[in-house]
Amino acid sequence: MGALDEGRFNVELENGVKLGCVELGFEEEPETVAIKDAVKVLLQGLGEDINREGLRKTPLRVAKALREGTRGYKQKVKDIVQGALFPEAGLDNGIGHAGGAGGLVIVRDLDLFSYCESCLLPFQVKCHVGYVPSGQRVVGLSKLSRVADVFAKRLQDPWRLADEVCLALHHGIKPAGVAVILQCLHIDFPHLESVFLDSDHQGWVKLLVCSGSGVFENKKADIWGDFLSLLKFRGINVEKPHTGDSTDQCWCPSRSSSSAKISSNMGPAHPGMVTAVASILGSLGEDSSREELVGTPSRFVKWLMNFEKTDLEMKLNGFVCRRMDPLKLNGKASCNEEEIHSELNLSFWSQCEHHLLPFHGVVHIGYFSAKGVSPISKSLLQSIVHFHGFKLQVQERVTRQIAETVSSLLGGGVMVVVEANHTCMISRGIEKFGSSTATIAVLGQFSTDPAARAMFLQSIPNTTTFG
């Protein structure tokens, strides 16, 4: 490990480090101020105290994330491609169906994210780009990724994103043809009303789209077979991508029939919050009156209201969560008279209070219970998880709250593990795709019994999937 410049390190701790598009004076820029003010309106509409510790900096954090995530509006493809073209042989006189010496070039597995223009939630993209060089022009391979990222960093839908990347590269490189394939994942975040009814709710909507120009315009051309074969060679199966536009497609969960039914039951969205979201769109450089965005503020607000702060008495599946009589559970019994029960892979959904972005995953619960006492039902434990999840949260807090609630039912030892994917980990400058976070809360006997902790942790399957 190299020597640490302690003086410089302390300065960075005190003043921060410049990241991404966040520049000096960023907080005072009119766009940032407008987004911060709008986020405060949204938080107040949820019944939150914007001055409480966890929320004081949320408006600024949201502004930074949104502006970083939509920086593509201020970038130009021409600036990226110019200076990155190199003189190599390409398709001049039809030598070889893929360009002869300057044949098909592809870049696979580019990780991108974009904000869905229908609901403002981020979606993930695995992008594959190919082109056939023409004349004496090949482009630096890193530029293919940068061009794709320019259009991803805008409010998008998959079809337009594929077309824009394809056309931009076609005009910038002037190749014989360009092909773009996108594997898209949109988080399908359930509404509070539906999640209690559907325990098997799937977390993602998947879509495969493609776009082609030049020699790739004909989807049945042999060159497509070469492109798809080179993808399949690395285990990427993209045999049936969707082509064309999205006029008859509905991939965003917020526009599905089931979502529309639930939204209608919730009544009209809060007008002040809708206006605030429209203000955010304008501050990002978008036109909120654009046809595709007309309903976006209302859809976002109705989704956000899932996390409204309420003072309702906690009732879970008809049970009032109060501490049960310790005598009934034989709370004074020794560990030898108790046994460990566990419930694994309970689905979990929540909303990060730092960035107003969703996170989701699974919860594993282990607990001591006196022999002869029936285990807590899975439905009750799932309800406890959902109750604490559907709030503005941080993962550490929700882990502790679940443990404390289960402990209040039993009066005994409880151990809770929460594993989650955070969309704020991909939709900000760090863009850590595939990362996950695990947190643990330990109460009672588990805190003093390492063997019991190890036994419970070993029972958690290593094939857990929640992304």
From TrEMBL:
GO terms for biological process: folic acid biosynthetic process; tetrahydrobiopterin biosynthetic process; tetrahydrofolate biosynthetic process. Its EC number is 3.5.4.16. Pathway: Cofactor biosynthesis; 7,8-dihydroneopterin triphosphate biosynthesis; 7,8-dihydroneopterin triphosphate from GTP: step 1/1. GO terms for cellular component: cytoplasm. It catalyses: GTP + H2O = 7,8-dihydroneopterin 3'-triphosphate + formate + H(+). InterPro entries: GTP-CH-I_C/QueF, GTP-CH-I_N, GTP_CycHdrlase_I, GTP_CycHdrlase_I_dom. Pfam families: GTP_cyclohydroI (PF01227). Keywords: GTP-binding, Hydrolase, Metal-binding, Nucleotide-binding, Tetrahydrobiopterin biosynthesis, Zinc. Residues 35-187, 275-460 form the GTP cyclohydrolase I domain. GO terms for molecular function: GTP binding; GTP cyclohydrolase I activity; zinc ion binding. It is an enzyme of class 3 (hydrolase). Coiled coil: none annotated. PANTHER family: GTP CYCLOHYDROLASE 1, GTP CYCLOHYDROLASE I. Homodimer. GTP cyclohydrolase 1 is the first enzyme in the biosynthetic pathway leading to folic acid. Belongs to the GTP cyclohydrolase I family. This is GTP cyclohydrolase 1. The lineage of its organism: Eukaryota, Viridiplantae, Streptophyta, Embryophyta, Tracheophyta.
